[in-house]
Automatic annotation (TrEMBL):
<feature type="signal peptide">
    <location>
        <begin position="1"/>
        <end position="21"/>
    </location>
</feature>
<protein>
    <recommendedName>
        <fullName>Neutral metalloprotease</fullName>
    </recommendedName>
</protein>
<keyword id="KW-0732">Signal</keyword>
């Protein structure tokens, strides 16, 4: 079976929402091949097929088993990853790296195999020993013994860096599984556009974290799986900065994209690693572990879905609503909010409305989806001389689950941030200085903080749910006057 055929069958067998997801109107300006490495045609397609396997008929189960086979299963893995000859392995204390001796899947040298093993060992040290995530469940004697197995194969010609596959449910657990990973066999710059060592480091960190996640809950919401796996790249290989290329597609650059958005064509889930960066900069790396503990399905774990788990953890701090609002404001000026923010894109803001004596009142209306934001800007015209000019900002928002902030960008580039206090009707107002010599622009941030869903509706959002408060209507009325 050819690789494209394998993808089609995997999608059909899984009924894979994540493999087929994404609106027809998605942005055509997609990212480059790096994102193909984490497209649902790899880790999440195999996850979906694994989830669907118990519901398949006998013939479908046979096909599914071949699709989920390990490369060392050879001809029993007709999906394209089976080695066509002898294989060997090099092992450390916790991990074994398997490789083909000859053929297209053979690595360039035994030195590369050993280098891969060293990097994977460093990843284990970082993610398990330092960040204190639970190690992947043992696979018994699959692969030869109970050590975690990683296979090298030629993936670059498919646009793939690597993937992990859940394989067997942990005994006594419904939603935890052992797994194995497959990484490219050489990560050549010609195929991947970056130094081989850099590609190896970020891919190993990302994919191994998927194996860890499968030991907590392999059915967890896809945005949480991918956003935290992309975040962990930054903690392990900070200087590589490969994940920066995702930022234009996520919630930093596109504030109107919901936090829990997952799409194969918008790629927001990868760019949303910045959300975890924002939170861990404030509360420490342990926050992500705390969220996964709330999502943990093992034993008596809480087994909360992604946004529930996030809400439970942030409830110990400022709460999800305030954190999301602060995050939206921070993304207006990443250089002020993140250690490496000078290299990040800033949030998209529409053209500021020019306000002066000839246009003293401007009203802007918009709709905002759940767990997302929208920015509205105003600027003074040159006629507004002196220090007596003021701008009165009136906000009309839904009665609940809304927030509004005002950022005054001064002429010297400094910023001041203000809260618009909304009453029970969702209305609020704030007055700020607006003289042309003092102020460059005023930005009003409107945030829909709702995380209400009808769950299990087969969407790609949290809990597979249908958001109940999308398209919420907001209005901003700006009035110019002299004090």
């Amino acid at each position: 079976m050819s690789f494209p055929a394998r993808l089609v069958v995997a999608c059909l067998l899984a009924g894979a929402l994540t493999a087929l997801g994404g609106p027809v109107s998605a942005d055509p300006a997609g990212p480059d091949a790096r994102r193909a490495a984490e497209s649902p045609y790899s880790t999440l397609a195999m996850r979906d097929l694994f989830v669907a396997r118990p519901t398949l008929n006998p013939l479908q189960k046979i096909v599914a088993q071949t699709l989920l086979a390990r490369p060392t299963d050879g001809v029993n893995d007709p999906g394209g990853d089976g080695y066509r000859g002898r294989s060997r392995k090099v092992c450390g204390r916790r991990i074994c790296v398997h490789y083909a001796v000859k053929g297209a899947d053979a690595p360039p040298s035994i030195r590369w195999v050993r280098r891969t093993l060293r990097v994977l060992g460093d990843v284990w040290d970082h993610e398990v020993d330092e960040l204190r995530f639970r190690p992947p469940p043992t696979d018994g004697r699959r692969g030869g013994d109970d050590r975690f197995d990683v296979y090298l194969a030629e993936l670059g010609h498919r646009g793939l860096f690597g993937y992990c596959t859940p394989e067997r449910r942990v005994r006594g657990e419904r939603l935890a599984a052992s797994s194995y990973c497959v990484l490219d066999d050489d990560f050549t710059r010609r195929q991947f556009g970056a130094p081989a060592g850099d590609s190896l480091r970020v891919t190993a960190a990302h994919e191994f974290f998927h194996a860890i996640q499968f030991g907590y809950d392999f059915r967890e919401d896809p945005w949480l799986l991918e956003s935290t796996a992309t975040w962990i790249e930054e903690t392990f290989a900070d200087k590589v900065d490969d994940n920066r290329r995702y930022l234009p597609y996520g919630t930093v650059r596109r504030p109107g994209v919901p936090l829990d958005d997952f799409s194969n064509t918008r790629y927001a889930q990868y760019g949303t690693w910045a959300w975890w960066q924002y939170l861990t900069d404030r509360y420490g790396d342990g926050l992500v572990r705390a969220v996964w503990r709330q999502a943990d399905s093992v034993g008596d774990g809480p087994n909360l879905y992604s946004v529930e788990a996030l809400t439970a953890v942030l409830g110990r701090h400022e709460g999800l609503s305030r954190a999301l609002t602060s995050y939206a404001v921070a993304n207006l000026s990443p250089a002020d909010a993140y250690p490496e923010g000078r290299s990040w894109p800033s949030a998209r803001v529409g053209r500021p409305a020019a306000m002066g004596p000839d246009q003293p009142v401007v009203t802007r209306r918009t709709q905002v989806d759940h767990l997302s934001a929208h920015h509205v800007a105003f600027r003074p015209t040159h006629e507004l001389r002196g220090h007596r000019w003021r701008l009165r900002v009136h906000v009309e928002a839904p009665r609940r689950r809304s927030a509004a902030r005002v950022v005054v960008v001064r002429a010297d580039g400094q910023r001041s941030r203000h809260t618009v206090h909304l009453d029970r009707a969702g209305d609020g107002a704030l007055t700020v200085r607006f003289g042309a010599a003092e102020v460059a622009r005023v930005v009003v941030t409107l945030v829909n903080t709702s995380f209400r869903y009808d769950c299990h509706e087969e969407t790609l959002y949290a809990c597979g749910g249908q958001p109940l408060d999308d398209g919420a209507k907001y209005a901003v009325r700006a009035e110019l006057f002299r004090h």
